[in-house]
Inverse folding.
């Protein structure tokens, strides 16, 4: 009966392997040993980050978001939770981003002349031909998931107002990186405790950005590469031909059509129409604007209900309004249409709102 | 020798009327889907087809087989796999024919592998049949200008066929993994209905558990968690990560199911 025992043992081994495999798959991947890299001064690293020219790369980006934002139908990738996106760029302005959303996908392709935005959920292509330096909304959306671009912006805007240190090394997407830490100076009245940027040791390209807020040990938000391959990408990725069955529209036509359907657009446009007013500098910069009175009254009841759900009623000697709080930012909307927002505690907003013209 | 046993097993399975009825039912699915999408298109604007992959079905017949299999993987295909697994051991036990097989001078492990082979062959056959009917009915009702992916690119018909082939293999593997666990249940009972009930209950409970975000620590253990990720076959270029994860997950179930069934068969009194 020896054979029987062998068979039993083999079968049991199979079961154990299966169970072990399941448990292994369920375990979060460990960070691994931090690589050892030659020391580098914070200042020179910052310079290198700001001057590094993004090369061609393709990769998968994971956004881990605990900001406490309500999920927006427009950008489901920014709702709380983990989301991933795939981006490719040729280093010369052409890029492609694939933003999966459940079983559908949004693809944004910039082929150098035109930005195509495809959404599989409604089988629609938006074609925006490039005009004189005009920001393209879809392109901004695509770049918001690019850790390299995001980190550069953060560093550029805040380096004068922060204590900058290099805090060890990390391994991100299988590449060795320095951890650059920007801590707001003590005089900055901000919600943010520090921003950690993992900078690729070789390319000096930011691979991961983590934002830590006061009183939390876990980052409120992380954008980082999960996988990256540096080097020339397939040029076919930067071309886009609208599928035969898809509707092709222009952004202008889409806006026309959307205006009556989506009331919040009215407020959005009102905000964009006026030049925002900037108060303060550095981390506690506050952005202010005034929504025209007619836009305030146009908000339909259902949208108002939605606003009420996410906001808190406040009042003070500046007036009264509603405050919307996330872990990294606060927005104050006064009943008379003044709006201020910033990565600051609400008290700073109360002090600033009086200056909004 | 073993090929002869494999052949006879599949012949036996194909001879059962319920197998034929089951296959006929499966074939109806892609036809109904194509027809449904086609009639929806007649109503002109509104579209509003099913969400996800369904949104790009219009005029895109090559996607019908993928869509069909993707939908069926949630309930229909596990059901079919459980029926075949139930017939394989519990059914034979009920008819008293398993006893003959167990006392025969044939290794019981070999018996299990013959049953597993039968399950695999029939799963592959059923899935391929659905896909082929899907291609035909999709092309007939919705037209075929190559395959449009979720990423908005259009693949040539040949590339599309490769994707469909890949999806057939992936779905079959999931089905076999479920069938292997069903075989383990099947080896422990004489009642085929128990096997089907147990398998289907498990699949449904897994899917319900998968809905609760508070149980997300449990999700990586559930085979059903891997199903939605297979849709990545329809993205371009294909992201392999989720597909690999799903297949590994199913592989673990296959090992556990086969191992348990083998332990039970070897220790079973004739």
């Amino acid at each position: 009966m020896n054979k029987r025992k062998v068979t039993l043992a083999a079968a049991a081994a199979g079961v154990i392997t299966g169970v072990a495999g399941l448990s292994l798959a369920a375990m979060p991947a460990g960070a691994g040993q931090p690589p050892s890299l030659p020391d580098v001064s914070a200042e020179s690293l910052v310079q290198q980050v700001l001057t590094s020219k993004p090369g061609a790369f393709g990769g998968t980006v994971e956004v881990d978001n605990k900001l406490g934002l309500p999920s927006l139908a427009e950008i489901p990738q920014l709702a709380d939770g983990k989301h991933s996106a795939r981006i490719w760029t040729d280093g010369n302005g052409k890029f492609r981003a694939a933003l999966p959303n459940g079983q559908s996908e949004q693809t944004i392709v910039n082929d150098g002349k035109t930005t195509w935005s495809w959404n599989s959920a409604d089988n629609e292509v938006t074609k925006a031909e490039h005009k004189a330096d005009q920001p393209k909304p879809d392109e901004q959306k695509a770049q918001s998931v690019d850790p390299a671009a995001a980190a550069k912006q953060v560093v550029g805007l805040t380096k004068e107002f922060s204590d900058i240190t290099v805090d060890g090394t990390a391994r991100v997407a299988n590449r060795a990186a320095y951890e650059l830490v920007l801590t707001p100076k003590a005089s900055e009245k901000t919600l943010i405790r520090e921003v950690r940027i993992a900078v690729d040791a070789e390319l000096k390209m930011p691979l991961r950005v983590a934002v830590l807020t006061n009183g939390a040990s876990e980052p409120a938000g992380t954008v980082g590469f999960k996988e990256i391959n540096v080097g020339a990408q397939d040029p076919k990725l930067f071309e886009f031909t609208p599928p035969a069955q898809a509707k092709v529209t222009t952004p202008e036509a889409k806006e026309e059509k959307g205006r009556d359907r989506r009331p919040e657009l009215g407020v959005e446009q009102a905000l964009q129409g006026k030049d925002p007013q900037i108060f303060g500098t550095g981390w506690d910069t506050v952005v202010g604007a005034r929504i025209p009175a007619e836009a305030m009254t146009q908000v339909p009841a259902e949208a108002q209900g939605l606003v009420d759900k996410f906001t808190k009623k406040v009042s003070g000697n500046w007036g009264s309004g509603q405050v919307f709080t996330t872990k990294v930012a606060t927005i104050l909307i006064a009943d008379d249409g003044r709006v201020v927002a910033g990565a600051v505690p609400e008290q700073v907003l109360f002090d600033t709102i009086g200056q909004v013209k | 020798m073993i090929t002869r046993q494999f052949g006879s097993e599949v012949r036996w399975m194909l001879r059962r009327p319920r197998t034929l009825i089951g296959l006929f039912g499966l074939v109806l699915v892609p036809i109904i889907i194509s027809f449904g999408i086609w009639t929806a298109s007649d109503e002109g604007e509104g579209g509003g087809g099913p969400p996800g992959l369904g949104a790009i079905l219009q005029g895109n017949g090559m996607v019908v087989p993928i869509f069909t299999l993707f939908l069926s993987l949630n309930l229909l295909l596990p059901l079919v796999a459980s029926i075949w697994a139930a017939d394989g051991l519990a059914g034979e036990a009920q008819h008293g024919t398993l006893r003959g097989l167990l006392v025969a001078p044939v290794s019981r492990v070999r018996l299990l592998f013959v049953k597993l082979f039968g399950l695999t062959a029939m799963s592959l056959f059923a899935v391929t049949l659905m896909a082929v009917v899907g291609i035909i009915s999709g092309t007939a009702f919705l037209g075929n200008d190559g395959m449009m992916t979720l990423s908005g690119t259009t693949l040539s018909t040949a590339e599309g066929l490769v994707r469909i082939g890949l999806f057939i293999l992936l779905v079959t593997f999931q089905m076999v993994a479920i069938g292997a666990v069903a075989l383990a249940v099947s080896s422990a009972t004489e009642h085929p209905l128990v096997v089907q009930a147990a398998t289907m209950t498990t699949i449904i409970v897994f899917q319900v558990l998968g809905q609760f975000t508070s149980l997300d620590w449990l999700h990586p253990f559930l085979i059903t968690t891997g199903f939605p990720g297979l849709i990545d076959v329809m993205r371009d270029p294909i992201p392999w990560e989720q597909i690999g994860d799903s297949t590994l997950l199913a592989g673990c179930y296959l090992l556990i199911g086969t191992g348990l069934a083998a332990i039970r068969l070897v220790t079973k009194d004739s």
User: Anything to note?
Assistant: Chain A touches chain B through 43 residues (CB under 8 Å). Residues 258-263 of chain A have pLDDT under 50 and may be disordered. Residues 286 and 342 of chain A are 5 Å apart (CA to CA).
